[in-house]
Amino acid sequence: MSEAITLLVRAQMLIDGLGGPPLSPGAVAVAGQRIVYAGPAAGAPVAPPEARVLDYPQGCLLPGLIDMHVHPTYYWEEPDSATYTYEPENALVYTPVMIALVAAQRLREALWAGITTVRDTGSVDQIMFDVKRAIERGRIPGPRVYVSGRLIVPTGGHVHYLPGLANEADGPYGFRRAVREEVRAGADFIKLANNGADLTQEELNAAVDEAHRLGKKVTCHTSKPPSQRMAIEAGVDTFEHGTPSPEEIEQAVARGITWVPTLNIGEEYLKWCDRRRFDPDPEVARRAQKEYEETLEYREKKHASVAYALRAGLKLAAGTDSWLGGVRFAAMADEVRWLVEYGASPMQAIQAATLWPAQAMGWDEIGCLQAGKLADLIVVDGDPLREIAALDRVQLVVREGKVIRS
Asked: Hey, where are the domains in the chain?
């Protein structure tokens, strides 16, 4: 005997995440933690009297959003200002406990914004493993969390200067050992970081091979050439940031690799540099002007890369990477909006925040609204295919069949 329906949600339209035309009106029926029906409202099963029934006559049903690039434990608020203890007497001291509380607050904010799954692509020490366990045990509210642990970098590499964030290694065997260390700590996947070419192809190949041997997916921070090419040649599952060339994009398509371009944080950093260009300190203004010009050039290259990626069929995944002070952590609606601004169709942008990330990471139970999947779903006010900003007007959040916000 099938499990009784516990939740029935009906809305003006339904986008299941699979890329087909929306259904209007649509409905999703849930039994316990799983979806038992997703389709036209007219065909929805009858809910028993004890079930919860929610109607949204102006709303759109969607899969829960997936943020592929978050850092809940990043405790600094401006570039180059990270430290556990600040000198001024009135400054906040960022102990591990305080960092965990900051992470918990940010993840609750994400869940409230309709983000039901996040991928933590680098965290301070082992704090996020405890935060993840607290969410899983119901101690604190939050989205489903996949944690990479520390970033694996070469000695003196990316973020080595930030306390607790980098696992520094050297040589192919050193990188294999670092992968094993993060897996032993509880890593769900592995995050590597390569700024240009500060690690060798042999080191990168060894790390990817070791992670895959242990059954873990791999992503790589790729800031500038030739880091994208190196990551793709090594066989990573996803690569972050960067401006891949047409040749690199075609190679990634052929190998089934997904790109996480992190657009919103780039736009926010450009605004931050623009404001700093007028700082009364001439040295600050000079550096900001240089950064502003370089970021503008980077932005133009990224526009070209995204445009070519969409034409070539490279799957994109939405990731916010909200590390800059003043930028909201739960910026998924902004990231999806920028995907559209950069040339994606609204449906492609929605899939970049739902189905495509799940496919890239092998998360078979989430990413779309289908019978048998975990019941992660949201309702937004309006039609996001006509107005992508509707994703910022969340009315309902359901995670694994539990109503979080309504």
From this structure: 7-63+367-405, 65-361
Tell me how far apart the alpha carbons of residues 256 and 263 are, in angstroms, rounded to a whole number.
Answer: 21
> Which class for 287: exposed (0-12), middle (13-18), buried (19 or more C-beta within 10 A)?
middle
Instruction: Name the superfamily (CATH) of residues 7-63+367-405.
Output: Urease, subunit C, domain 1 (2.30.40.10)
Q: Are 44 and 2 in contact (CB under 8 A)?
A: no
Centre a 10 Å sphere on the Cβ of residue 19 and count the other Cβ atoms it contains: 14
Predicted model pTM: 0.95
- Phi, psi at 15, each rounded to 5°: -115, 110
**In this predicted model, what pLDDT tens digit does every residue of 328-366 receive, in sequence order?**
999 999 999 999 999 999 999 999 999 999 999 999 999
Six-digit token string for 321: 């990477």
65-361 CATH pick, 3.20.20.140, 3.20.20.70, 3.40.30.10, 3.30.70.260: 3.20.20.140
DSSP collapsed to 3 states, 310-327: HHHCCCECCCCCCCCCCC
